[in-house]
Amino acid sequence: MKILGIAAPFGHDASAALLVDGKVVAAVEEERFSRRKHAKDECPRQSVKFCLETAGLKPQDIDAVAFPWALSALRQRRWEYFFRTFVSNPSRAYKKFFRNMKEYRGQAAFIARTLRESGFDKHQPQIHWIEHHIAHAASSYFLSGFKTAAVLSIDGGGEITSTLIGRAEGAAISKIKEIVAPDSLGNFYSTMTEYLGFEREDGEYKVMGMAPYGDAWKVNLDHILWWNPRRRTYRCNDDYVWVPRSKRARPDKVYSRKMIKEFGPEREGDELNVPYIHIAAATQRKLEDTTIRLLETYLAQELKSHGNLCFAGGCALNVSLNRILLKHPLVKNLWVQPSSHDAGGSIGAAAYAAAQLGDKIAPMEHVYLGPEFTNAQIEPVLKASGFRFEKCADICETASSLLKDGKIVGWFQGRMEWGPRALGNRSILGNPTIRGTNDRINAIIKFRESWRPFCPSMLKEYASDILGSDHPAPFMTFAFDVAPHWKERIPEAVHVDGTCRPQVVDERHNPKFHRLISLFHKKTRVPVVINTSLNRRGEPMICSPQDAILMFRESGLEYLAIGDYLVKKS
Ligand SMILES: [Fe+2]
Hints:
The protein is an alpha/beta fold. Among the domains are: 166 residues, ATPase, nucleotide binding domain (Nucleotidyltransferase, domain 5); 194 residues, DHBP synthase (Alpha-Beta Complex), CATH 3.90.870. Helices cover 37% and strands 19% of the residues. A hairpin with a 7-residue loop joins β1 and β2. The site of fe (ii) ion has 7 residues, from α6.
């Protein structure tokens, strides 16, 4: 079957993914084409076109379209939402209860527009409406390769649900527990993210990066998010979390005046300061403790029998949380969808629909599912750019020598990555052994907060020695404690708490990147490079050679290894 997944239903992170006979052949986020981060209010028309072109298909070849939103999910749980909110927020309660057809029509219009703008004028495929959290769970379970697994999906909120806990076997995902908004771990974390001075639904990873600098015990958030043992669930305080307009400190922010009164004004600037570092630490701690509580309450029996956990939803991008999950005695194998946020809904909905239609879903072994460009396509762009460039006999050899000498190198090769992490095809690389490498990357191109860590990519053959773990980690979705004897050797890859968020590079899935690191290892005896995404601050990851040249021109980057070419400024 040829199943096209499109996303996303909530006005951000539009994407498309295509499964042919159970195998993901293409997946991409619209932001990479439109060059607007998170593709707000865009439909994924360029992404759909790319998916069809990659597979050599026409719209009429598509058997079904899958979308990660379902009216049934909204209807089933609207009473629960109504009773939960009609005192604290009556207007939201009534809106959600009575306007669900309006919501449905909005989603149907989004799908119709996407298909129309993607060339589906005559052919109208069958639409599979997949519950939002089932799509998240499916994006992890079906692509994990596990036969049986416990599944966890946590985000800000889908149709109405914010947390789904379940089990999966064969083609079925069954629910064990659902938690309905406004009780929402994702919204709690996003609200705190905004209060801490970052953009919500974007800067959550910065709160996570800030957390190790603070002391979680110095701030009490128990009145904002707490565990209710009688109901065996968590609760959020409606006076603090994603508050209605009447309670907001500022109309465009979702934290409340009460929050300001209690903790002080919203954090500003790029520095680390008290009490905000402690608030970040307490926020992270709440997320971790509550998730572990959910796991132990609802999944203990399930995990005792096989130990496989699949995790997705926006909160699954929190690598520090995943580190805690991975350390839990019930969890033997953890698989996290690399695109766990709403962009991953396209791949999840498509995988779920394909499985229901009888396809066997192939595990997702790599993320190289986006556009690629040949030397013949790259060279004219370089010629037109006016930059000095040369064709190298061995670009890996050239780039590894530059890295050895402490140079920062843009690395553009093969198919662009699916998901927010650069995994060696659209990367900026540096030498982790030279102190100051991260500062230089920040100074010439990234301009990010100086306290935020950079991630390492390491050869699979040495990963267990560096990380003290054999657990697969191909997608930068987990943090690990760095072994003491490596901390001094790769200081630029280690965060202040002694952890790193690695990509373990397997030759099978990215031979060119593996070879580059191998050559660097040969020259330095260190099998690790610093790897951050190829883009400037606030812009989506680079997609095309034209994007790369524009970024190169407007940044302080001096070397760009693109295809077999090395572009130089000096
Ligand atoms: Fe979601």
